[in-house]
Amino acid sequence: VKNTYTYDTLGRLTNARETDSANTQLAAWLYCHDKAGNLTATSTTTTTCGSAGTTYTYNAANQTTNSGWSFDANGNETAAPGGLPRTGETYNDFNQLTAITRGSTTSAATYTGTTNAERLTFGATDFYHGSEGLTATVTNGVSSANPRAASQP
Q1: Three-class DSSP category at 51
Q2: Phi and psi based region of residue 78 (left: phi greater than 0; alpha: psi -120 to 50; beta: remaining)
Q3: What are the CA-CA distances from residue 2 to residues 20, 22, 49, 69, 124 (Å)?
Q4: 121 exposed, middle or buried (CB, 10 Å; 0-12, 13-18, 19+)?
Q5: How far is CA 80 from the centre of its chain?
Q6: How many CA atoms lie within 13 A of 92 on its CB side?
Q7: Nearest-angstrom CA–CA distance, 15 and 48
Q8: pTM for the structure as a whole
Q9: In whole angstroms, what is the distance from residue 21 CA to residue 30 CA?
């Protein structure tokens, strides 16, 4: 499988494509952005932004306002669509998420410094970083090398 990526003049990912050895397209993703750089739409079925299937909207702080998303006064995410509803989050003085509770389960997170750039753990998952960024994760003893796929810009 070969992955091909296309970027706009501002360096934002606009297309990702997977092909086999015969150059037959296996999958494709379209990413659309507004002037502020926010992701406004994604699609796996169209090649034009005006007809993209999933769309995103933002407030003045460039936070998504799509259904299910919310943020605290510091801009920390407090709710996201999908999965079990969150019943609590804890952030440290650096606005790093240090714990999240969903239902009756709390998962803790640790970091290497004062930014979110290198998370070390989150719940049962360990994160491993190299010169290219996140290089592997291990969850409950199961390793996943290069977890960042074309569908996850």
Answers
A1: helix
A2: alpha
A3: 6, 10, 24, 34, 31
A4: middle
A5: 12
A6: 13
A7: 10
A8: 0.51
A9: 22
Distance CA 70, CA 78 (A): 5
Alpha-carbon span 132 to 146, nearest angstrom: 10
Structure tokens at 141: 């003893």
For 119-136, the three-class secondary structure string (H helix, E strand, C coil) is EEEECCEEEEEECCEEEE
Helix, strand or coil, per DSSP, at residue 5 = strand
Query: For the segment 65-109, what is each residue's pLDDT rounded down to a tens digit?
Result: 887 888 888 888 887 777 777 778 889 998 888 898 888 889 898
> What amino acid occupies position 122?
F
